[in-house]
UniProtKB/TrEMBL annotation:
Zn(2+) binds at H18, H20, H198, D279. Its EC number is 3.5.4.2. GO terms for molecular function: adenine deaminase activity; zinc ion binding. Coiled coil: none annotated. It comes from Marinospirillum alkaliphilum DSM 21637. Keywords: Hydrolase, Metal-binding, Nucleotide metabolism, Zinc. Its cofactor is Zn(2+). This is Adenine deaminase.
Length: 338
């Protein structure tokens, strides 16, 4: 394996644009929070829990993911979760994060929105002050629930609009197309928010078309199956739309058979603005640098690919042009040295 490339991937400044904060809940923290909150777990040890992280598809993962959240009850729990993630990615030279949270999964368990947002944001603000990691917070709707539930959640979030930067759509994709949420996202747009939705992870290219045509998305999360439709690829290229690709997630959820078949380099070759992200790092075997490492190990990644992937993330981030330029200058500096 190419040690030089690995070192460069590790050292380069990075933005992470596709991260579910609940998916960064490591088994050790599950047990710690379960004990603190008196929650009974179905697993006898950290190892037993980790052993359950074997999935054949998205739904098998989601069942474990929603069960894992049962330990998140208090503001401090959401803070601890987010703070652990930020400290972890600080080691990976991540300098900007745009993270999702799934409020409906917590509201269903009786956890108020202000508890969730306040804990997550307290850690994000501390991360900005102490670790120099800037952030955006994205409220993600659960697509297996109804559009009315999403609309209610959007209304419930009204007092917190100034603490949110955008809206997303995640959970079980097949059978829950973007068009199901057309009214919700039209409202989000009216309110002036940016939008990014999971599309083409397991769902067909048509779901990506719907995200573009019916939701007017600003980014696509995953987007892998766009590669099946050349017209769609050209449209995404023409629009310069960022794809937040998640290699280890794709492997663990059997979206790709093995890493050597991952489409990310073909995406770059076609001019798609692909980026590298961890999705749910506690469940999929690694954080951002682990994703880069897996790509370098199994695909003919070059220095130019690394640069393009890192640059795409800064360009696709929901930050000002001046901020993008500052990050890209720093990226250039690291590449000139390395
Ligand atoms: N990879 C993923 N796809 C859809 N919903 C998710 N929620 C958390 N991770 C997800
Ligand atoms: Zn995701």
């Amino acid at each position: 394996m190419n040690e030089e490339l690995l070192q460069l991937a590790e050292a380069m400044p990075k933005a992470e644009l596709h991260l579910h904060i609940e998916g960064s809940l490591e088994p050790e923290l599950v047990f710690q929070l379960a004990e603190r909150n008196g929650v009974k777990l179905a697993y006898s040890s950290v190892d037993a829990l980790r052993a359950a992280y074997a999935f054949n598809n998205l739904q098998e993962f989601l069942d474990v993911y929603y069960a894992g959240m049962s330990v998140l009850l208090k503001e401090q729990d959401f803070y601890d979760l987010t703070w652990a993630y930020l400290n972890r990615v600080h080691q990976d030279h991540v300098v900007h994060v745009e993270i999702f949270f799934d409020p409906q999964a917590h509201l269903e368990r009786g956890i108020p929105l202000d508890v969730q947002i306040s804990g997550i944001r307290r850690a994000l603000e501390q991360g900005q002050a102490e670790l120099g990691i800037s952030f955006r917070l994205i409220l993600s709707f659960l697509r297996h629930l109804s559009e009315d539930s999403a609309l209610e959640t959007l209304e419930l979030a009204r007092p917190f609009y100034d603490q949110l930067d955008g809206f997303g759509l995640d959970s079980s994709e097949q059978g829950h197309p973007p068009e199901k949420f057309a009214r919700v996202f039209a409202r989000c747009k009216e309110l002036g928010f940016r939008i990014t939705v999971h599309a083409g992870e397991e769902g067909p290219p048509d779901y990506v078309y719907q995200a573009l045509d019916q939701l007017q998305v600003d980014r696509i999360d995953h987007g892998n199956r766009s590669m099946e439709d050349e017209v769609l690829v050209q449209r995404l290229v023409g629009a310069g739309l960022t794809l937040t690709v998640c290699p280890l997630s794709n492997l663990k959820l059997c979206v790709v058979k093995d890493m050597a078949q991952h489409p990310i380099l073909s995406m770059l070759k076609k001019g798609l603005k692909a980026t590298v992200n961890s999705d749910d790092p506690a469940y999929f075997g690694g954080y951002v640098n682990d994703n880069y490492r897996a790509l370098i190990q199994h695909l003919p990644v070059t220095r130019d690919h690394l640069y393009q992937l890192a640059r795409n993330a800064f360009e696709g981030a929901w930050i000002s042009d001046d901020e993008k330029e500052a990050h890209i200058n720093e990226l250039n500096r690291v590449f000139a040295l390395g």
